[in-house]
Amino acid sequence: MRMRRKRNLEARVEACAPVLVARGKPCRNLKEAAENYRFLLDYKEVFGRTAPVELEVGCGNGAFIAELAKRERGCDFLAVEVCTNVVLTAMERVMEEGIGNVRFLNIAAEILPCYIPEGSIDRIYLNFSTPLPEAGREKQRLTSDRFLNIYKKLLKPGGEIVQKTDSEPFFDYSLHKFEEHGFKVLALSRDLHHSEFAKDNIVTEYEANFSSKGMPICFVRVAMQ
């Protein structure tokens, strides 16, 4: 079901300009943008300091990244969400709560290299990405070869990817892809909320909803070797 367009969307997005660092397609299509466009972020200019930078791909309403940023004041965070209607909620949340170490990119993940310098990200979060089980949509999965090759360029040596999902088939697919791309598993659970990793987990409304229905949450943290 398509989300209803928010009232005064453009005016509200404009009001979030202090936390929005990129928006839309800079070229006619994603392929053209990915190949030809570069407007690399200067993190010191964006955040006003030099600190480790972490990235969430598909931030949704921003509940996870907002809580993480409050817990980890010594890090800076970039949050990517392609849907303007959705990212507006995340941006307004961060601005209302006065969280100063989060910035947003309202772009497709395919063009992350247009904005993010290679070898500059310490950790990437993939929280409840759409599984897209149809064979014809594999390239769109956020742990497909296509996206893992992007992440590998953005991550620092030894940089990490953290994934959570309620879809075990998608989780198995992701584990296979991580192995294929040379990532080392640092932590893994097929029932996160009943594991040793639960104490540090940030539980969003979406995650709590699935868990309350008895659906186990799969979790993995991997690192480049």
Describe this structure in words.
The protein is α/β, with parallel strands linked by helices and 225 residues long. It is 32% helix and 23% strand. The protein has helices spanning 9-15, 30-36, 43-47, 63-71, 84-96, 145-154, 168-180, 205-212; strands at 20-23, 53-57, 76-80, 102-106, 121-127, 155-165, 183-189, 218-224. An eight-stranded mixed beta sheet has the order 1-4-3-2-5-6-8-7, with helices on both faces. Strand 3, helix 5 and strand 4 form a beta-alpha-beta unit.
Give a short synopsis of this structure.
The chain is α/β, with parallel strands linked by helices and 225 residues long.
SSE arrangement:
Blueprint: H1 9-15, E1 20-23, H2 30-36, H3 43-47, E2 53-57, H4 63-71, E3 76-80, H5 84-96, E4 102-106, E5 121-127, H6 145-154, E6 155-165, H7 168-180, E7 183-189, H8 205-212, E8 218-224
Parallel strand pairs: 1-4, 2-3, 2-5, 3-4, 5-6
Antiparallel strand pairs: 6-8, 7-8
What's the CATH class, please? Alpha Beta
Number of domains: 1
Main sheet characteristics: 8 strands, mixed
Q: Ranges with pLDDT <50 over ≥5 residues?
A: none
- Structure annotation, total helices: 8
Order of helices and strands: HEHHEHEHEEHEHEHE
End-to-end Cα distance, whole Å, is 41 Å
For the largest sheet, list the strands in their spatial order: 1-4-3-2-5-6-8-7
Q: What would you give as the CATH superfamily?
A: Vaccinia Virus protein VP39
Calculate Rg over CA atoms.
17 Å
Give the overall silhouette: globular
**What's the number of extended β-strand segments?**
8
Residues in β-strands, percent: 15-25%
**Second rung of CATH, namely the architecture:** 3-Layer(aba) Sandwich
- The helicity comes to 25-40%
Q: Average pLDDT value? A: 95
